[in-house]
Specification:
The complex is a heterodimer of chains A (571) and B (337).
Chain A: H1 3-15, H2 21-46, E1 65-70, H3 86-95, E2 100-108, E3 114-125, E4 128-134, E5 137-142, H4 156-168, H5 172-177, E6 189-191, E7 197-200, H6 208-211, H7 222-228, H8 237-242, E8 251-257, E9 261-266, E10 279-284, H9 288-296, E11 302-303, H10 311-315, E12 320-325, E13 330-335, H11 345-354, H12 357-364, E14 369-370, H13 394-403, E15 415-420, H14 424-438, E16 444-449, H15 451-459, E17 465-470, H16 477-485, H17 499-508, H18 514-531, E18 534-540, E19 542-547, E20 550-551, E21 554-555, E22 567-568
Parallel strand pairs in A: 1-10, 1-11, 3-21, 15-16, 15-17
Antiparallel strand pairs in A: 2-3, 4-5, 5-7, 6-7, 8-9, 9-10, 12-19, 13-17, 13-18, 14-18, 20-22
Helix pairs in contact in A: 1-2, 11-13, 16-17, 17-18
Chain B: H1 2-31, H2 36-41, H3 47-56, H4 63-75, H5 89-124, H6 129-143, H7 146-160, H8 185-191, H9 195-232, H10 235-242, H11 247-277, H12 279-284, H13 290-299, H14 303-331
Chain lengths: 571, 337
């Protein structure tokens, strides 16, 4: 929090008539009373370590130890099932390698800062030396000398058994690899005469290889699986939920103390190059403000999940380097297409026309976000913003509301906009939307729910209108639209249903007709813009915060850091 | 002998209290909307998969069947598996209890060490500057939010002055804990003769302990002052004064002993509250204790964890009162047990 920012926010809220004079005076008075204390805190927070460059403050930390402040505990250790906690996903990504990976390339941010990222259209080998299509088969030639941390060698049979567990256990990865029915049975996995690992898909397609890059496809050591499996639990789901399997990546787990820290150490048996950092400590710090404090004071080398309002101060801190990278994350208002009044297209369009997009970009994201102009985000192939007609137009919004049978909002049912947990950004978006919709006579109340409650209602399609966000790990428009717009998709929470969209998804999702895919993608984007099940608010940047002595970061579209690429520049 | 019988009677009384708490908690966690399974399953899970997970977790059974199963497991020391940590709740509680206990114990020790002298002096010097100062401190301690005190202390002693470590938990990052004996790092490091770890653990404790101490001190100081004023104005103290007893003896042997009874009850209440209630302090100081565990469990509708935590908190609360009742019985000869 910044006093100046808060004062500016109050002033802009008053100017925009979101608050009345009494609320303005009350707010300014409160800031005045608390100002001295707040100022003291801010000055304290701004106090940078002594000049002369960043130094390792922690006496127990050596140059080859990397310390990252993370926000979450582990929720599961099973690679096939990590979908919630970023800490779980990060540990799996750094302790297990996959068959393939994306090619790393150089890129520059819009302001000209160079950085490294991945080319999602070029998948190269990781544990595999190479891979190729042979008809509908994906054929993987494995590297020599690859092994698990316990020294057990990995060969094609290891992958047959590892993927069989993924498919048989109903893991998240099974769902992803099985998209479109491409890979559902263990009988589709084999070892050929050349000792190569062969995955026989029902149809060659562009989605499965990208799903196959993700950390969820990491395979477990068959010998360990045989040891811990039971008759009642042949895939050892209970065991691997509570215990990390023997890995094959650059790091192995050293210790985990819930609510305290996760320690990874470089594994001496790793088949590849040894990483620079021999130890990585993921310090679990739940409070975002404290993560910022630790970073600014040099107690940690990096911090994750930093709120946007901190960007300005951190980008000016000489001990911290920031990198603001455009991402494909889309922030949206979602409306339940099966509940009145949002079952009418005109009402959804009215909301889209009443949304103050620029205010949200400036006030919530402080310029560190792009406008979201299509459900397929900028940065994803076939992104087409051309049919997006929505700009702030209250007259148009009011006339659409009237056309829906709610002139001036008259006759509208009670409307709630729901926000999950303690997400301050989403809550502020909800406040802006509440004010904006009030201007066309749509009176909206804000409802804050605990995450579990929110998830239950959202997944049961029992919310009316809510704030949400989505990023697709596979940078493909069909993958993306399948999850958000296919009528049967489990994550199509607004229950949007359009026969033409379903038809095009069905026809082109697994097609190798690049031109046809691009045309159909654009047609679907236009339909979705017109139907407006989502109001597309922003594409926030992915912002990285590191101490200024850390180098080698690569941005992957799954947003998980790969610690093995990082180094420390010592003076 | 009579004291032993009294303690046993009180411990037996713990059973219906715990049963009541278990039943109420069970009902409340089931009544509040929210289900852990959807969150655990994630956005990709199909409806069938979610239903299957609910069935496996027993959440599709009628509530009374769930309750009966829970009670049966509980009698065998099984509090269930946490949906969020995937560990046994008993393991989670055992791992986190020492962190909370160490924090609250030293916090309460500080609070009592400050509050009793302040309350006594304030009562003896009514209307003087020291009395006013004590009352201001007490009012501030009661009225300032605990997270505010925590942030001010971090800002001052960590950010600005750099005298004390920041919110990094029980030990500095990259330092290993001492071999576990009690789970209290200060005690275990001394047992191991590891004075570096003892110093580090003590330094980590200073700011959160100060936060709890300053907050808990306020009501105790106010209560001590009020009961001391009553005692000092009572007939038996006037008699003692008229007999020429020295002030020191009157205060320590007569007035304080009598005024301590309500203060001790209050200390028990504050301690019982603090052991599970210092969510914000643990959250801000990254302290891996019960407060943060219970907060996450409540937010995630993690029923087994919430229930396990409440059973432990009720037990701690009742035990704190039991200890105080025993002390009061020793202090006050009028009480029969």
């Amino acid at each position: 929090m910044s006093v100046n920012n808060e004062i500016k926010r109050l002033q802009s809220d008053y100017a925009a008539k979101r608050i009345d004079r009494r609320q303005l005076i009350k707010g300014l008075t409160a800031l005045g009373i608390g100002g001295m204390w707040i100022s003291a805190i801010e000055k304290g927070a701004m106090a940078a370590p002594a000049s002369g460059g960043r130094s390792l403050k922690n006496s127990a930390q050596d140059a080859e130890t990397l310390v990252i402040a993370v926000a979450e505990n582990i929720d599961t250790w099973d690679p096939g099932f990590t979908v919630g906690s970023k800490s779980s996903q990060t540990v799996i990504q750094n302790t297990f390698d996959q068959l393939t990976q994306y090619e790393v390339i150089d890129a520059t941010t819009p302001d000209g800062t160079p950085y490294k990222t991945v080319n999602t259209e070029n998948i190269i080998g990781m544990l595999a030396e190479s891979w190729e299509w042979d008809g509908n088969d994906m054929v993987f030639t494995l590297k020599d000398g690859i092994q698990f941390h316990n020294g057990n060698p990995m060969d094609a049979q290891t992958f047959v058994e590892g993927y069989a567990r993924i498919l048989g256990s109903g893991a998240i990865a099974a769902f992803l690899l099985g998209m479109g029915g491409a890979l559902t049975e263990a009988s589709q996995l084999s070892v050929n005469d050349q000792g190569q690992f062969v995955v026989s898909l029902t149809k060659a397609n562009p989605i499965t290889p990208q799903n196959n890059v993700m950390h969820n496809t990491a395979v477990l050591d068959p010998a360990q699986l045989a040891e811990v499996a039971t008759d009642a639990d042949p895939w050892a789901l209970e065991y691997f939920k509570a215990n990390l399997g023997i890995g094959n990546g650059p790091y192995r787990l050293d210790s985990y103390t819930p609510d305290d820290q996760i320690v990874l150490v470089a594994d001496e048996n790793y088949w590849g190059e040894q990483p620079y950092f021999k130890t990585v400590i993921m310090k679990i710090v739940s409070d975002a403000t404290q993560r910022v404090q630790l970073l600014r004071n040099g107690d940690v080398d990096s911090a994750t999940k930093i709120p946007f309002p901190e960007y300005e101060a951190l980008s000016q801190d000489e001990n911290v380097q920031t990198l603001s990278i455009p991402s494909t994350l889309v922030v949206m208002i979602e409306m339940n297409n099966t509940i009145a009044p949002f079952d009418q297209k005109e009402v959804r369009q009215a909301v889209a026309y009443a949304t103050p997009y620029d205010d949200i970009l400036e006030q919530i994201y402080l310029g560190q976000a792009g406008a979201a102009k299509s459900l397929v985000p900028e940065g994803m192939p076939t992104h087409d913003p051309s049919t997006n007609q929505y700009t702030l137009d209250l007259e148009m919004a009011a006339s659409l509301l009237e056309a829906a049978g709610y002139p001036g909002g008259e006759g509208l049912p009670e409307i709630k906009i729901t926000v999950a947990g303690d997400d301050q950004q989403k809550e502020r978006i909800a406040i802006i939307m509440q004010d904006a919709l009030g201007k066309i006579g749509m009176n909206v109340s804000i409802e804050k729910l605990a995450y579990a409650q929110f998830n239950e209602l959202q997944q049961g399609s029992r919310l009316q209108m809510w704030t949400d966000e989505w990023i697709s790990w596979v940078n493909d428009p069909y993958y993306h639209m399948f999850w958000l717009a296919q009528s049967e998709s489990p994550s199509n929470y607004p229950k949007f249903s359009n026969a033409r969209v379903d038809e095009l998804l069905d026809e082109f999702m697994f097609s190798d007709d690049a031109e046809g895919r691009a045309e159909a993608s654009k047609e679907m984007q236009a339909i979705i813009i017109d139907e407006s099940p989502y109001v597309l608010l922003a594409q926030p940047n992915w912002i990285i915060y590191f101490g200024n002595d850390i180098d080698g970061y690569v941005y992957y579209n799954d947003e998980l850091p790969r610690y093995a690429s990082l180094t420390r520049t010592t003076s | 002998m009579r004291l032993a019988r009294y303690i046993i009677r009180r411990l037996l009384f713990l059973i219906p209290v715990l049963l009541g708490a278990i039943f109420l908690t069970f009902l409340l966690t089931r009544m509040v909307p929210g289900n852990p399974i959807e969150r655990v399953a994630g956005p990709y899970a199909s409806d069938e998969a979610v239903e299957e997970m609910k069935r496996q977790a027993g959440l599709l059974d009628p509530w009374y069947v769930q309750f009966w199963n829970y009670l049966k497991d509980l009698l065998q020391g099984d509090m269930g598996i946490s949906f969020q940590t995937n560990q046994a709740v008993t393991t989670d509680l055992r791992d986190r209890f020492p962190a909370s206990f160490e924090l609250v114990f030293f916090g309460m020790l500080l609070a009592v060490a400050l509050a009793l002298p302040l309350g006594i002096i304030s009562a003896m010097k009514q209307g003087t500057w020291i009395d006013h100062l004590t009352r201001i401190i007490a009012v501030l301690g009661v009225s300032m939010p605990i997270f505010w005190i925590a942030l001010i202390l971090i800002s001052t002693f960590y950010n600005r002055l750099g005298w004390l470590p920041g919110p990094q938990g029980r030990l500095p990052i990259a330092m290993s804990p001492p071999p576990e004996v009690t789970g209290l790092y200060t005690v275990d490091s001394l047992i191991a003769g590891d004075f570096d770890t003892f110093r580090a653990a003590t330094r980590q404790l200073v700011l959160p302990v100060l936060t709890i101490g300053l907050t808990a001190m306020a009501p105790i100081a106010r209560m001590t002052r009020a009961t001391m004023i009553d005692a000092l104005n009572s007939d038996y103290i006037r008699t003692a004064r008229s007999l020429g007893l020295p002030t020191r003896v009157i205060v320590t042997r007569n007035a304080l002993k009598n005024s301590l009874i309500p203060v001790l009850t209050l200390i028990a209440a504050v301690f019982g509250y603090a052991i599970g209630g210092e969510v914000l302090v643990e959250y801000i100081f990254t302290w891996p204790g019960l407060g943060k565990y219970s907060f996450d469990a409540i937010m995630g509708s993690d029923f087994p964890a919430v229930q396990g935590f409440i059973i432990l908190a009720v037990a701690m609360y009742v035990l704190a009162y039991l200890i105080v009742d025993i002390l009061i019985a020793i202090l006050d000869p009028r009480i029969e047990y």
